[in-house]
Amino acid sequence: MIIVLKLNPTPEDVRTVEDHVRDLGYAPHTLNGEVRTVIACIGDETHHADLHALLNLPMVSEVIPIQKKFKLISREVHPDPMPVSVGDLRISGDSFHVIAGPCAVESMEQTLSTARFVKQSGATLLRGGAYKPRTSPYDFQGLGRDGLKILADVKAETGLPVVTELVSERDAEAVAEVADVIQIGARNALNYALLTEAAQTGRPVLLKRGLSSTLQEWLLAAEYIAKQGNPNIILCERGIRTYETATRNTLDLSAVAAVKRETGLPVFVDPSHAAGRLDLVLPLARAAVAVGADGLLVEVHPDPEHALSDQAQQMTFDVFREFVDGIKPYVQLTGRDHAF
Amino acid sequence: MIIVLKLNPTPEDVRTVEDHVRDLGYAPHTLNGEVRTVIACIGDETHHADLHALLNLPMVSEVIPIQKKFKLISREVHPDPMPVSVGDLRISGDSFHVIAGPCAVESMEQTLSTARFVKQSGATLLRGGAYKPRTSPYDFQGLGRDGLKILADVKAETGLPVVTELVSERDAEAVAEVADVIQIGARNALNYALLTEAAQTGRPVLLKRGLSSTLQEWLLAAEYIAKQGNPNIILCERGIRTYETATRNTLDLSAVAAVKRETGLPVFVDPSHAAGRLDLVLPLARAAVAVGADGLLVEVHPDPEHALSDQAQQMTFDVFREFVDGIKPYVQLTGRDHAF
Amino acid sequence: MIIVLKLNPTPEDVRTVEDHVRDLGYAPHTLNGEVRTVIACIGDETHHADLHALLNLPMVSEVIPIQKKFKLISREVHPDPMPVSVGDLRISGDSFHVIAGPCAVESMEQTLSTARFVKQSGATLLRGGAYKPRTSPYDFQGLGRDGLKILADVKAETGLPVVTELVSERDAEAVAEVADVIQIGARNALNYALLTEAAQTGRPVLLKRGLSSTLQEWLLAAEYIAKQGNPNIILCERGIRTYETATRNTLDLSAVAAVKRETGLPVFVDPSHAAGRLDLVLPLARAAVAVGADGLLVEVHPDPEHALSDQAQQMTFDVFREFVDGIKPYVQLTGRDHAF
Amino acid sequence: MIIVLKLNPTPEDVRTVEDHVRDLGYAPHTLNGEVRTVIACIGDETHHADLHALLNLPMVSEVIPIQKKFKLISREVHPDPMPVSVGDLRISGDSFHVIAGPCAVESMEQTLSTARFVKQSGATLLRGGAYKPRTSPYDFQGLGRDGLKILADVKAETGLPVVTELVSERDAEAVAEVADVIQIGARNALNYALLTEAAQTGRPVLLKRGLSSTLQEWLLAAEYIAKQGNPNIILCERGIRTYETATRNTLDLSAVAAVKRETGLPVFVDPSHAAGRLDLVLPLARAAVAVGADGLLVEVHPDPEHALSDQAQQMTFDVFREFVDGIKPYVQLTGRDHAF
Fold first, then answer.
1. Helix (H, G, I), strand (E, B) or coil at C339
2. pTM recorded for the entire structure
3. Which is more confidently placed, D2 or A189?
4. Angstrom distances, CA of residue B265 to CA of B73, B188, B235, B252, D283
5. Residues of chain C numbered 165-224 and touching chain A (CB < 8 Å)
6. What ipTM does this complex have?
7. Would you say residue D186 lies in a domain?
8. What's the pLDDT tens digit per position in A242-285?
9. Structural domain tally of chain C?
10. B45 lies within 8 A of chain C by CB
11. The domain containing residue D15 runs over which residues?
12. What is the pLDDT of residues D144-155, one digit of tens each?
């Protein structure tokens, strides 16, 4: 950590800070700049205390942490890609995957027909929520166990591995029985109890970025999962909260490029939830491919207008076909394998 | 809901939208403005479907929802204050409460000495975390059950009711045994499974606003609790995430005034977490009193510099005494009862 | 405009609001919903008064404007593309343009060598600031008139049309003499006096989105220019201000797709300023092409490390060559003409 | 500046960075931490180059600037208050001032009646816009020169000093002739040409915080003014842009407390523009007093409903009287002089 002192500290001031620094387990190293005096504090920041308390000393102006707190998933520590295996699929930089399916599982018929269609169109994983976290308690919350049963049946029928969301620690076991990948949604992205529970099932985890998570928080949330001995993590950018209201969230594609520099984990993009409007899903998906994403998560429904949730952003079968056709040349350009 | 059509719709366009609207359970009512055609849709929005799907029709420009989705806690439905009873305390607009204590329970000695001091200085509830949600998995996560035990002992000793955070559904019973008020933190503010679990314990719930929750989301989170038959909710503003980095969060005092217009529930303010720096806690607390808050939640520690978390924002005993003296005349001005 | 009343209004309440509405030039049309009473107000919102004042009536809950305020540049009014001609160049959906050059004009040598290199690499316009708006008054503010002279000479030498920023109304004439396109920067994006002055020169204007402008504000700023009889406007997305600090701004590529639905004006992207770091410029540029941008604005400098501004984001000649090679296949995929 | 290297740099890596650092005018000082290697760079950051370019070296992880760039207005350099004199008024920490008046000057009658009323109610300065920066080019833009004439007449009649906004460099002289304080609005807060022009008139400047300005940017904007030899600056917080839509902007009262630690300049608060709704103006004004503001800027109009701008947030005379009565006891508590 670096401590910046206020202008013109006395030797006494400097000594006071140095003593505090030593007391907290660091070796202080004082540098007298032309304008500022700075005390560099040598020590392992993951083990020694946080020095921010020193901000309360009158002569301290700033405390700047240096060390990054994630390491199990860090590219600095693990420079190689960290692929995730889902059954026979290998999710890594060599291939491009589309996860598609309805926002919510509503019925066998709806889910099965969607699964068949998306599979035949080139999707390699099926998504569908049995548990839906909804902003209003009066909105449809998912079919729960019945939804899981439908997903299991559809998986048996189509062979598509299933991605489904976990919203309660109490459902972890039941969800893990059916899910090939457990999804953690944006609202639970900093719910560390749930992250830990999901990790402990041993299933790969698709971790959405929180509504307003920084890259640092997102990576540390992934580190919570890895710390349970489960490094099978797919990160998923889904837009962040900003002042702009033309889209439901602001898709942060810089984050995809930036986060790939920090970690070897695969990074997906969910353009449906980011935009919240169908007309932007295809252009944003193309952009996601071009920025370097490893896959996409999109919503497809046989009859979106009568869907029980997210009616404005689910694609019909026809639109999904056009969507896959629309991203295909961009995926080809990246030289990645794909199933469409 | 109101549907705004694009410029110059044909009669056919209008009929198409009207048919869809009826199909979804609403009665359409078309108005031809000087510039825009608008279709007002009559129906109960908590029961009929969301009309946003109609955005995908080529002639639709905007869909605007009208009805608010919270009602159990709404001032429109319940114009009177909704006071919360905690043991003998009545938290309402007539009194002003200070909840004080350490960020985390670290030891019996630390917690008991703090409790005694804050009680004698006029705090009416004790705060202290046995479970701490931390951004990094390598940071101190709280003493857990041992921390709860300490809180129970300190409560027995001092008589101060206890406010403590719940971070996992699995701990709800254990926490509810000790807690007089269960706190839901900002990171879990949209964790509906946890909100439901907390509500079902029957304990009053102190619900912090999420890191980037809108007022609407915050009130709907409270509605989740109320829907379980538990209307004993204290809302707590703790700053929102913005681009400004001079403070850890941006304390949104407008929200306190605005939310009190929407609901009769008591609203507290946590100036410690909002600012993340000690020098702003007193001025922000005074402002919170002046804007109409019903109470404050602050952090006090016998030795903040050696605290295991939040070192930069916990007050020493001396500073807390000054703090209480500093807010006292402002509280008196509001004519509310207080214990300091 | 739509006025939503509070729950259970009396007939008297409704009459009061209707009277106010008429008084302000609208025809009220009252609809009694199942839950809410809504008064639709028929009238041209660009001519009649804003009804927001009615929010101060006790029975009014919300006032919702319907009509968009931009029309000269609106796709609803002008469904066709609105191409911009710059000398022989036609900037429209049929071609893709790269505007490249140094952040600031520093010398004849630096500007000329850059211009020659970027032209030969396929850039069709030269950028370079003679006037630099800098956050600190102690940073390099540009060469001013001397910089304009250099730009004029380099244009004469290379034939590349020049894009340069206007920061003061007093320089409009001098800048317009040299500039083929006048740039309005993000900090001045809502400086309506400057927009008007730039428009009146008759030169095409490249209008960056403001630091935190909504799409609506951005388009209305363009409308200010168009209202002066100058419809030659290139919009340029350059990232918005958010809480995320991993990048200098958050590039909002959804905005590119969304704004193209609202207007036929060309939309460019500036990935250099958005990211503020060189390693993200190429992936973001590819994404910008894929999302549908009509061109890119990037910074190139013969020796970025010794540049007088924006050292971290200017490309060397070699990097620019790789950059052009990197975007080329993506541009080809869109079927647009290009010069590289 | 501090340069943080990536993990495990070679001695060669370190030498490379050190050479670059020296080349840019700094003395490097390398520290080998337990985990990270850090190179502290000694030198005056206002004169030497920005080291951010080094981010492009493969072994560099982060570049952290240390030195603050404002000094003329900095409390570190000038620990004492920097009061502003406006005629006989002295704006400083000893007194509390209310600036009141209509959003826009609409007529002699409207302005004079308002001025008389607010003076008699205790306001010490009159506000009123002759030039109005409006988001839409179709909205009322102010009376211009006629508005200035009215302000001059009203000042002659009432003796109230006048605060009015400057929106164009070309009007600086005319505005300065009438204005006792020149206001720079939020949209022009980073319009450095206008700041410079305003400063050069020699008039005190009321500088609003930009729509999304950081404290650092706001203070540097003030430094632009001070650098022209004009230290008579009143800072004015008016809310920042966030995701929250319940209020027009989010009033950042932490900023008031925080900025007063950085500078001795007076800091005012504009609760009307922040909230954009009348019902929050009084509670926010009380909070502003309590947090330590030196004054308030509010809008008063004889007939807000028929005002030509900002109808939803201007107070009637009666409401203004209640407003002054409402803040009075809070101002008294601070021990400041006041005229109401």
1. coil
2. 0.94
3. A189
4. 7, 20, 7, 17, 18
5. 212, 214-216
6. 0.93
7. yes
8. 999 999 999 999 999 999 999 999 999 999 988 888 999 999 99
9. 2
10. yes
11. 2-64
12. 999 999 999 999
